[in-house]
Write a structure and sequence with these properties.
Shape: elongated
Order of helices and strands: EHEHEHEHEHEEEEEHEEEEEH
Number of strands: 15
Helix content: 25-40%
Mean pLDDT: 91
Distance between the termini: 18 Å
Structural class: alpha/beta
């Protein structure tokens, strides 16, 4: 995993770098790379992976919000933590769907909790599962699975790239998919919270309304509560 710090304040950069190293040592984590950037242009020009980005908003030339938008276009799975002294940018940051918003001066314990949650999300996002069809076996990221649908004694896995007619049954997917990301909304549907666009008491619209899933009325409240909790923590 590569962690990028982008801030034009050397004192903040040093503090974040030292704190992240301390968190990694405390957590006994070693397979991490930390890279530092003093402006948005250098971060965007960098060709390396950007898994977790701690991003200032007010920087020379390019604002952190603009940089964040470009990062999401390049990698929709990037985890962005906004670090700033300016609370007035909170609404714009939320529209960008940033993972967290940390106010300066940064509280180290809050930063540690934020990093812990970010690493858990990264683990879920990058996890893969084997998907077996009659034509062969494929590996898919769980985060790229939009929904699983049972129809006419067949099970279809809808992903952001294509649909797979899998030989694995619904119970397989219920057992394998992480419960913190997926919900069985109906006996014939399992949906990924991350791809939900809107829902009512009977239907869930997914992935920019390209897909729909049934929502059993008796599960509406449970789904709504779980979805809102997911949105609050992601």
């Amino acid at each position: 995993m590569r962690i990028c710090i982008c801030d034009d304040n050397p004192i903040t950069v040093e503090y974040l770098s030292d704190s992240i190293h301390a968190f990694l040592r405390k957590s006994h984590l070693k397979a991490f790379e930390i890279s530092v950037f003093q402006d948005g242009n250098s971060l965007l020009k960098d060709q390396g992976p950007k898994d977790l980005v701690l991003l200032d908003i007010e920087m020379p030339e390019l604002s952190g919000l603009h940089v964040g938008q470009q990062l999401v276009k390049l990698n929709k799975d990037v985890i962005i933590i906004i670090v700033t002294s300016y609370a007035e940018y909170l609404d714009d940051a939320m529209k960008l769907r940033v993972f967290r918003y940390l106010s300066k001066p940064i509280d180290e314990q809050r930063l540690f909790r934020c990093l812990k949650d970010a690493l858990e999300l990264y683990s879920n996002t990058t996890a893969t599962l084997p998907l077996e069809t009659k034509d062969g076996v494929y590996t898919v990221r769980t985060s790229h699975i939009v929904s699983v649908e049972a129809v006419d004694h067949k099970v279809i896995v809808h992903t952001i790239d294509k649909d797979y007619h899998t030989v694995q049954n619904m119970q397989y997917w219920l057992d394998k998919l992480p419960s913190g990301m997926f919900f069985q909304s109906h006996r014939s549907f399992i949906v990924n919270y991350a791809h939900v666009t809107d829902f009512d008491h009977s239907v869930i619209h997914l992935y920019h309304n390209q897909l729909t899933a049934y929502l059993t009325r008796r599960k509406y409240t449970a789904f709504k509560d779980a979805f809102l909790l997911y949105m609050e923590t992601h």
